[in-house]
Amino acid sequence: MVAAGRHSRPAAELRVGIVSVQGAVQPHAAAIARAGAAWAQVRHPEDLDDLDALILPGGESTTISKGLERVGLYEALEAFARSGRPVLGTCAGAILMAREVEGVPVRSLGLIDVTAVRNAYGTQVDSFATVAQGELEGLRAIFIRAPRLKRPGPDVEVLARVDGWPVFVRQENALATTFHPELTPDGRVHAALLELAKKRQQ
Ligand code: GLN
Question: What's the pLDDT at 40?
């Protein structure tokens, strides 16, 4: 079991929650610690108090969705996002951030105006690494049974693409990657989340 990191917290330090229903929590915690912020696990609505930003990690979106439903986290996450605090969803987390999920009945939060297609890269090449194109030069992206994001709406900023498909998107305070930024030493995606949190505090 993983506990919250850094118990004695300086007043100005940002605190990032990581939804810990199912999926890859620990690598995100390490990435947040590397970026100089504190982190805490989120399992229940009350865990969201006192957080500056939130991460919805990868895993299995259907399993995470059932878990969120069971503990009443959907409404709490929606309220958290509405408060303007930034949220980053990675892989399964990106599916849960989408407006619509194609083909499977996964309840999503509708924070980013895209349609998510689960396991869109098929079974043969369901995991691969490549360099994404976009403003973040040389961004190495690891895809594990990744979704594809289709039909980005006019308010969606596409920050990186692979083969023309959006792989890193932003809509206001919501960020999503279809790859796993927590699995590479490149901290720029987590830094973007912290940057949004800092801006909100100013
Ligand atoms: N295939 C998973 C899903 O559809 C996502 C995989 C991941 O998060 N690495 O939920």
Answer: 98
